[in-house]
Amino acid sequence: MQDYRININYAKALFTLAGETGQQEEVAKDMRLVQEVCDENRVLAVVFSNPVVKEDKKVGILRDLLGERVCRLTDLFLTFVVKKRRSVNLKGISGAYLDLYRDSRGIVLSTLTTAVEADEGMKEAVCASIGKYTGRTVELNTSIDPKAVGGFAMSFDNKMYDARISTMLEKLHREFDRNDYESKL
To answer: What CATH architecture does domain 2-103 belong to?
Structure first.
């Protein structure tokens, strides 16, 4: 709970500052990059959570990883976060910023999970369906779950529609285990 408060407070400060300087979109791109870097580098989380590693070293690591790919405001903000000993919260802060950005722009984040790579027609149909349901623009992330066998799972706004064949088979298996189809006489 406390990490959430830290993340949202820092994200709100950055969002406000980016809004005042007209850089919200640019900072949003940078925050996506920060999330990608944090997701790809598991060692980075260990380094950032280690109190023995000095803040200057952590700032240097961030600058080496992100380099010139982030704007000056983002660079200054990341340095500030690290100096305040909140580097372990960088992924959470970037996620909170992106949530604020999406809310301000009327964008809903949606995830589509399929057994094989989804084609463009399916992605467009999912975006259109979710957009019609929510009345907002859709930012679609796709993932592949080979265990799904077929079908798809779609989630957005804390809602999930699961039409995967593997889920249907699991449900059927549970029903047979409960023996709902055998007479209780």
So the answer is: Orthogonal Bundle (1.10)
